[in-house]
Amino acid sequence: MKSIIPKSLICGFIAGAVLFGIAPLGLGIYFIEIIKPVLVPGVLLTQLVLGNTIGSTALFLALLLNGMIYSILFYGLFKFRD
User: Fold this and answer.
1) Residues 6+ apart with CB under 8 A from 44
2) Quick one: which of 72, 63, 60 has its CA closest to 12?
């Protein structure tokens, strides 16, 4: 049980950061534009909470939320496998 939590946090934050970096690169690719809510759910939550603000705080919060959401998903995956 104790090893699942750090493992899910590490995998979730890595996946969240990678997908956070991939999402803006798909500006001309139609498929990436369609799945953008799946790639960066943290950005959508940040826009709901803070509005359309621009700044390093909003960007950091979006990255943090994205990592947390993917960490929860990885925790469920690892918990289901055990």
Assistant:
1) 37
2) 72
Task: Please tell me the distance from the alpha carbon of residue 8 to that of residue 68, in angstroms, as a whole number.
Answer: 10
pTM of the model: 0.84
**Distance (Å, whole) CA 9 – CA 3:** 10
Tokens (6 digits) for 58: 């909003």
Question: pLDDT (tens digit, 9 = 90+) per residue, 34-51?
Answer: 888 888 898 888 888 888
Amino acid at 61: L
Quick one: pLDDT at residue 26?
A: 67
Q: Could you say which residues of the chain have pLDDT below 70?
A: 1, 26-27
> What tokens appear for 40 in the block?
């960066």
Burial of 51 from C-beta contacts in 10 A (0-12 / 13-18 / 19+): exposed
Token pair for residue 11? 């995998």
